[in-house]
Amino acid sequence: MSWQLRSERLTALVVLFLLSACNWVFWQKFIALQQPDSLAAWLFIGVGFVFLFLVFNAILTLLALPYVFKPLISLLLLITPFVVYFMSQYGVMINAEMIQNAAETNHAETRDLLTLKMLSYVVLLGVLPLIALWRTKIEFRPFKQELKVKSLILTGSLLLLGVIAAGFYKDFASVFRNHRELKYLLTPSNYIQASSTYLRKSAALRPVEVKPIGEDAKQGARWGKVTRPSLTVIVVGETARAANFSLNDYERETNPQLKKIPELINFSDFRSCGTDTAVSVPCMFSMFERNDYSDKLAKSHQGLLDILQRAGLAVNWRDNQSGCKGTCDRVPNEQTSAQPDPALCRDGECWDEILLKKIPQQLAQLAEGKQSAVLVLHMMGSHGPAYFKRYPDQFERFKPACKTNQLDKCSQGEIMNSYDNTLVYTDHVLASLIQLLQGQQDKVDTAMVYVSDHGESIGERGLYLHGSPYVIAPDYQTHIPALMWFSPQYQQSRGISASCLKQKAAQPYSHDNLFHSMLGLLDVSTKEYQSKLDLFASCRQP
């Protein structure tokens, strides 16, 4: 079966399909904001539909050209179902950071997101319309006649848009200025604009000339008094939110092992730089504060690890995630997936305990030498939606747990159970790390600094996962756990007071503090250091 349609009729049908079948998330939000309880409110919603129809129709009318229109619409029909799926299933909003996050994910994370329900979206919103499109013969008039018709359509659209703007400008301006999230929900304009921004930023980064920073870095005066090597472990957590740590008064016991460590310091009001890994990880190791941070600045400047290495510390990055996002490019680094352990890895993914496997050997080597080291461990943590894959079976403390990556197949309680189980396992990994560090503290000064990269939404306000635009992100995505532990000898050699830090642990801190705090903690002298952002400064002896 095949059809014949004039280009303007097919254009109108495509726009109607996009606005009605592919934008129910947008309309749900738009209608909820209006709380329509009168004819005038419903009239405004109807006018909004007409307004968007005219805008989309005018744009596609310009692009409705022979040899262009069908491939263009086909591309939209191939991409849009995936966008609609993620917005409707996880409540995500599409901006440039979300596109970057998707572009930098690895195959294991991608596999966790593939579901049969996603396939149904692709078939219903993509494949079937695509078949109908390619069975339709588009009738184009001779050039001058086609130009005349398009001109009439565009003129009429502009006139109607002018009339609507004159009558409802104040209302539209109020809605879209006060609820910027709406533009991240309107497809396909959301992903077209986000992709354009991401590609423009990426293009501007190539070729990247990485500017050295901290070229004056050297070990400070305190190093002259240090008699033993040290190992400082920075643990970059993944998707852990502070609200679900029992150390932060969460009603469930998610920190059964860490709570038994009296020397542990819990920073209860710590904020992330971003809401996804692609932003947070490079940001937390850069010298730029969140308000000044950009991907371009981070990739065109060296970071904390470069300075530490320049100051004579042995720096190493061990990754159980999708990579360090450029942060570890100039220091020795390794992926756990390159040397999988059958006891700790399954289906191409490894549990986070694999990050600890080489630490006893590293501590033994340090004990025999003089050089101090900094080790960064990048966890898989609580990365969703396949939370159940993040922990071995014996750590399934909360039951029943959600055992699928299709969160809509599980109850809210089951999803929360599986997420909390990931935190119980993170608790075990961190406690085990501290135990390893304690085991060699008579030979090596040891310390652990843990901070998550960002938080997670678990169904609150219909949102799941993370990656919301920061200005409108819920607290669950930006309020993160941060923990520290120092051996007595480490405290003494660095001149820091754990009791003083505990007294200040309830103060507000953020990823902005990490760069300068690590420089201060490790006594690295450089002009890049700012004592006002060093959270150890007031608890360190001169």
Automatic annotation (TrEMBL):
<protein>
    <submittedName>
        <fullName>Phosphoethanolamine--lipid A transferase</fullName>
    </submittedName>
</protein>
<keyword id="KW-1133">Transmembrane helix</keyword>
<feature type="transmembrane region" description="Helical">
    <location>
        <begin position="72"/>
        <end position="94"/>
    </location>
</feature>
<feature type="domain" description="Phosphoethanolamine transferase N-terminal">
    <location>
        <begin position="52"/>
        <end position="201"/>
    </location>
</feature>
<keyword id="KW-0997">Cell inner membrane</keyword>
<keyword id="KW-0808">Transferase</keyword>
<dbReference type="InterPro" id="IPR058130">
    <property type="entry name" value="PEA_transf_C"/>
</dbReference>
<feature type="transmembrane region" description="Helical">
    <location>
        <begin position="147"/>
        <end position="169"/>
    </location>
</feature>
<keyword id="KW-0472">Membrane</keyword>
<dbReference type="GO" id="GO:0016776">
    <property type="term" value="F:phosphotransferase activity, phosphate group as acceptor"/>
</dbReference>
<feature type="transmembrane region" description="Helical">
    <location>
        <begin position="114"/>
        <end position="135"/>
    </location>
</feature>
<dbReference type="GO" id="GO:0005886">
    <property type="term" value="C:plasma membrane"/>
</dbReference>
<dbReference type="GO" id="GO:0009244">
    <property type="term" value="P:lipopolysaccharide core region biosynthetic process"/>
</dbReference>
<keyword id="KW-1003">Cell membrane</keyword>
<dbReference type="Pfam" id="PF00884">
    <property type="entry name" value="Sulfatase"/>
</dbReference>
<dbReference type="InterPro" id="IPR012549">
    <property type="entry name" value="EptA-like_N"/>
</dbReference>
<keyword id="KW-0812">Transmembrane</keyword>
<dbReference type="InterPro" id="IPR000917">
    <property type="entry name" value="Sulfatase_N"/>
</dbReference>
<feature type="domain" description="Sulfatase N-terminal">
    <location>
        <begin position="232"/>
        <end position="524"/>
    </location>
</feature>
<dbReference type="Pfam" id="PF08019">
    <property type="entry name" value="EptA_B_N"/>
</dbReference>
<dbReference type="InterPro" id="IPR017850">
    <property type="entry name" value="Alkaline_phosphatase_core_sf"/>
</dbReference>
<dbReference type="InterPro" id="IPR040423">
    <property type="entry name" value="PEA_transferase"/>
</dbReference>
<feature type="transmembrane region" description="Helical">
    <location>
        <begin position="39"/>
        <end position="65"/>
    </location>
</feature>
